[in-house]
């Protein structure tokens, strides 16, 4: 009788654990699919940038000039900035939070 109760308890616990694993897998799948969505950008004039974005660029990239601005389909902004020969592409949220910084593909230095 003890074995039957013990085996029933083990089976119940395994069933509950499987449900949690399945839910965790669904959440992870949703996060991954959201990250893989392609973002498209439409060029906008610099005066259409939110104030938080222009302030963040001015603060973090002093003496850089905003060359081009884009609004992404995800609601974020891509800003191309330059200072002399130094150029960067920034992805910022509407609140001015820097999400990503990279050099434009055609300006990246090759590493040997």
UniProtKB/TrEMBL annotation:
Signal peptide: 1-19
UniProt KW Signal keyword: yes
Top-level lineage group: Bacteria
SUPFAM superfamilies noted in UniProt: BT0923-like (SSF160574)
Keywords on record: Signal
Protein name as catalogued: Beta-lactamase-inhibitor-like PepSY-like domain-containing protein
């Amino acid at each position: 009788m003890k074995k039957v109760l013990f085996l029933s308890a083990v089976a119940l616990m395994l069933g509950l654990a499987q449900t949690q694993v399945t839910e965790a897998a669904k959440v992870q799948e949703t996060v991954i699919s959201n990250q893989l969505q392609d973002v498209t950008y439409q060029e906008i004039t610099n005066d259409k940038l939110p104030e938080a974005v222009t302030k963040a660029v001015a603060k973090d990239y002093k003496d850089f000039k905003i060359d081009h601005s884009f609004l992404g389909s995800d609601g974020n902004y891509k800003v191309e900035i330059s200072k002399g020969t130094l150029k960067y592409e920034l992805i910022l949220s509407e609140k001015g939070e820097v999400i990503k910084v990279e050099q434009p593909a055609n300006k990246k230095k090759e590493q040997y």
